[in-house]
């Protein structure tokens, strides 16, 4: 299903058959073109969108949860997502645009972004997804008559991201957790939080998926592929290398750096100067996640009382 104006291009939405109607894994972006693609795609498989029994959302992001509300309106289907993401969706729907903008502007200032960058990054707010009817937990079985679809909680990309193991067909729906050619965004929001470690959670979640063995993998982007375990550990190794590179970057600096300065010095898929304002905001979130994991591991520390917050390598980390 298309994601207009987004470099990802499309979301893969899956329909799992059951005697009481199909259950969708994700629902795609909230856009008329995506809705037509969903309706026609189901039709080509001999299904009707009005017969959809439920939508399991792997996580709350708009390219996955965006159309879930319209599917519910059309068919009366239930929407299910993990309780951690459900809580975020509730908060997003409560926040007014002004409050949301203020929250993000304050976060960016504390990270070291200047006034122009703050204005550019906070200019657009996606529409919040529809609240779910059902909340999922790790190990739950999805309401899919005649089949066994088990929830595998894989936090990291979002706090409530889930993979879904269709055990009767030996398939694993991975959402954004394990993708064949790219890696999902893992960020900290607000950037300077000290009570969470999303990248640490993500690395543990990759190990959890690897322990399931080599399953046929059905991701939300790119293409399906065999060997979920091998790819999960490739992504794990990628982030460990990125953590080493970040520590080396900080070792070369004489003074502590802000999150925004660090993000600007890190390597991305294109130069920092060429990133859009929204992509810079996401890059800063990912930089913050890697900084937080290094902090949890005792490799770096934040400068006490600094505003904006600054990070430096711990002196003992320089020892051979």
Automatic annotation (TrEMBL):
The keyword DNA damage does not apply. Residues 10-221 form the Metallo-beta-lactamase domain. Transmembrane segments: none annotated. SUPFAM superfamilies: Metallo-hydrolase/oxidoreductase. It comes from Planobispora rosea. This is MBL fold hydrolase. InterPro entries: Metallo-B-lactamas, NDM-1-like, RibonucZ/Hydroxyglut_hydro, WH-like_DNA-bd_sf. Keywords: Hydrolase. The keyword Hydrolase applies. It holds the Pfam family Lactamase_B. It comes from the Bacteria. One of its GO terms (molecular function) is hydrolase activity.
